[in-house]
Amino acid sequence: MDPVRNPFAPGAGSPPPELAGRDEIIEGASIAIQRILLGRHEQSQILLGLRGTGKTVLLNRIENLALENHYLTAFIEAPEDKVLAELLYPKVFHVLRKLSLVDGAKAKTHEAMRALRSFASVFKITVGDVSLSVDPESGIADSGILEYDLSDLFVRVGEAAAAAGKGWALLLDEVQYLSSKDLSALIVALHRASQKQLPVIFFGAGLPQIAGLTGDAKSYAERLFKFPPVGALGRKAASEAIEQPIIGEGESINQDALEMIVERTRGYPYFLQEWGYQAWLVAEAAPITMHDVEDASARALKRLDEGFFRVRYDRLTPKEKEYVIAMAQLGNSPYRSSDVAEALGESIQTLGTRRAKIIRKGMIYSPGHGDIDFTVPMFGDFLNRQNAS
Ligand SMILES: Nc1ncnc2c1ncn2[C@@H]1O[C@H](COP(=O)(O)OP(=O)(O)O)[C@@H](O)[C@H]1O
Ligand SMILES: [Mg+2]
Q: In testing the pocket of ligand 1, which one of 75, 273, 308 has its CB within 8 Å of the most ligand atoms?
């Protein structure tokens, strides 16, 4: 069918034509955003899910909700190798610059700018295009202890936002890449702002492993955050994700073809987009048939093998590849770490570091004690396909 009108959107963070099955999460976020602005208590949220389940898309959607509700927003994607202070600095600067234009918020914004200045110098942040012309305020955000200084900063930003009659929403994608030190400080700072009933809200998204925090950070996080799970879509939502966009273009798909797509993709949002996209392309004309989906499946898998799966596989060292291949060969997930060790002829202890490094790269995670699984759905099948060919 007409490639120009193909509605499907496979790609990291690409907004889908139909955001299916996420009403509850969006509603929950919307309520939280409105409550915080009124000074009511509400937990911050971290969306947890595997790769390709639609976390980034949701986070963007939530940012829009915040903007519609008189918030200033800062959207950050945590890379593997940067510290939080450095990521936050330019974003907070832009938020404050906007607040400085609001009558009635100028004095508070000036104070927040001074706190930001202290924060930048104590953590030796240098960001080329952003320079602050205010003087630092001594005793505020300058202790060099991240959790104290971040708390001072968040409180000042919250006060400036409140003075402007606005809120501040911080959105952080790929939370699992934050160091535990950064994450703990973030938790403390958010907690402080919340105790002061300031209009500051946080939405994060990340791989399930962040739920496996330990110690103080864990008990704190459990009280402060909600963790809405973002998983595969159920049958009905998955069907809608495919059918609605097709109908929206005035085309159609047969029921059995639709079911086949839901089956093959197991309802995973990224895969749904890929299958929908290919099915649209291979079909000569509406309705899309089972035969079309059969062809589309081969193409979709090829695209995933060369892209979505491949880029992640390529980030592993040869030794790490050995480990994940051994996992895949065990069959059904989750896998026991002890079984992987046995398959590789090594002890769990000697493999510990390797396993930890792969977890750090966001490729695998531990869904429960002694268990290990892929953070990319159907990654095991991919590895077995590679090995077979
Ligand atoms: N609710 C949904 N229904 C249909 N497709 C979706 C949905 N959410 C996300 N997608 C699609 O899934 C893919 C991955 O989304 P993304 O937000 O990048 O996932 P994640 O951040 O969890 O890896 C994108 O192509 C997007 O269009
Ligand atoms: Mg993402």
A: 273
